[in-house]
Amino acid sequence: MRQAIRLGLGVAALAAACGVAAQDAHNLQGVSVSAAVDDPNAAPPGTASALAPSQASLSALEPQSILNRNYIQTIASPKDDYLALLELTPSAINASPNGAGFSSKSGTVRGFQDGEYDVSFDGIPFGDPGAFGHATTAFFPAPSLGEVVVDRGPGTASNLGNATFGGTVALYSAPTTDKPSGQLSTMYGSGNTWQVAGEGNTGTFGSLGTQASVNYSHLETDGLLDNAGLKQDNVLFKIKQPLGEHTTLTLVADYNKVNWNTFTAQPRKQTDRYGIDFGGLTHDPDTQGFYKYNVDDRHADFEYLQLHGDYNSWRLDNKLYTYSLRDGGPGGVDLLGNTPNQALLPHGGVPGAINHSAYRAWGDMLRAEKDLGSGWLDSTLRAGIWAEHAYQSQHEVTVDLSTMTPRTLAGTPNDQIIDTNAHSNTTQSYVEVEWRPVENLSVVPGLKHVDFDRTLDGVSNFLPVGGSGHFSTNLGAVAVNYRFSPNLAGYAQWAEGFQAPKVTILQGDGSQVEPQTTENYQAGLVWKTPETVADIDVYYIDFGNLVNSVEEPIGPGGSLISVYFNQGGVIYKGIEAELTRVLGHSGFSFTANGSINSAYSKTTGLQIANAPSSTADVGFIYDRGQFYGSFLTKYVGARYTATGETSGANYNPNARLPAYNYTNLNLGYRFLPDLRLQLSLNNLFDHRSVIQGNGAASNPTFYYLSGRNYTLQATYTF
């Protein structure tokens, strides 16, 4: 029994160390209760773990929320991107003014912005190598995912990535299956939205034990904002091939194509005139906002080849991977209506620009672990190394949009706005030990070494840019998990975080700034039975070396250039909790999660931008017989669009955004064991609150919560 409990406690760390998908890791758990309640994707129907929108694991080493396959398929919208999926978890907010899945604009966790937390796919971190951000519509829509885990912390030393200090949004593909299976679905909804999706599993075929799966989705919409259409295709292929008794080779390839109209937040004078569903796009070809002039075309791919071996006390895992994003299209210079065409093209035409950018990353992630000792020395040693090279280019030229030919705009020296090339190299290595000195206890100390190099050359905003930077550090972490009983576990963590400066530093005056750092302290409890899943945690994060910038002229009357510097830091602290409770045999379950969050600048003592003061999600889930559904309300507390709200001469009434809430209703019916129909009503009460803004003291711009909208989906499983 002791060994079984130890195995259960180590599953989360094993998944991180060996790159095993969460579903596969759960299957390794040895505690008897874990099979019933701790694996959300394997939990029996009707249990709290199977029904909960989000929950933690009994083997957690830091605060986390697991979003299982049931949540993705029956509660979330089928058109969601991954930021829309996680917005119902504690401390998370996301702005989707065009509708969930149609271009998320601001996904934050605890106030950490996109680019300050990692996103990974099957254990591989990915993102824009320049700013560490993510193009959410270009990678892994909801139908392609089997599970999402939101880890709200830097993890142990074996957690790799360029922005782990703000946490990790871990995306997982669905596993292949032993038996043939599949699913087909079609959806229609508001905004002339429609989607077809399907997945198929071959099961185990052939004498070699091969398993393969394919997932495809096609989405089209006119958008919930005026003229803000989107088209998306995504295909994901996986093949898993055993090589003998102890080794497995897995190939995964994903391709995504998106074409969408690029809207923008609007000032009140525009929304007063055209309504809050106006995003700057029109049907008039003589305006810069003509929707056909504002188009972004994206092509993304992600591939990896994994070799995994399990040799009794030794386990080895290697992932060789590449991913890329090509992004380009035209856009008007000013979609806010402040700059007339003649001001920039006095001899006629429609001023705009065509932008082309691309990046590709190549990397390899090697991990190894070995079981050592016995008794009070019982432990597992883990070590690994991650190396990645990324190349990024950007080219932007001003044009007359009516002819799509290059034109020099008034007040500019030429038509070449940006022409840059950047290279980056990341190497991270780690060693950690999971020590199990007594029954039910795991202690995981570790050390990670980080090296990051970046170079840049070219022209940006008509000025030459260039330079290089090298950043290196050692990061420590200690995490503890104790299983008080088969149903109750506690954990505590101390960990250091690190992020190298973004490429914009080299686009400024070349200022040397120190990397941003964090020191994290977190602790929590997890309780799980077939009827109840619950967790609670507290956190304190000391964020140092916050990078900021000011615009300064080059010489008397010269052009403005960004000057970067380290400015104090931020103290993040708060409490988070989740609960799902099955209400007897009624078919109903009560679910709630929430957070009280603080993110204050050390320098000013004011709340930082886009950090909510609190979040909450509360409602009911029903699943009995042929009927199922959910009624969930999300609440987001007040935020600021700049660093806090000052008084007196510096008071800015536009800096504070009000609290808001929205309610989503899902109603489903199973006509046959294999056929179901589902109606989803999002923002049921049609709240049109401000959800994001730029906080400008004059003529500020805002995004608004998208209006009431629906989707109707039919799904056939075979």
Automatic annotation (TrEMBL):
Membrane topology field: Multi-pass membrane protein
Signal peptide: 1-22
Presence of the UniProt keyword Cell membrane in the record: no
Subcellular location(s) of the protein: Cell outer membrane
Keywords, sorted A to Z: Cell outer membrane, Ion transport, Iron, Iron transport, Membrane, Receptor, Signal, TonB box, Transmembrane, Transmembrane beta strand, Transport
Protein's UniProt keywords contain Transmembrane: yes
TonB-dependent receptor-like beta-barrel domain ranges (all copies): 259-684
Family: Belongs to the TonB-dependent receptor family.
Name of the protein: Iron complex outermembrane receptor protein
Species in which this protein is naturally found: Dyella japonica
Phylogenetic placement of the source organism: Bacteria, Pseudomonadati, Pseudomonadota, Gammaproteobacteria, Lysobacterales
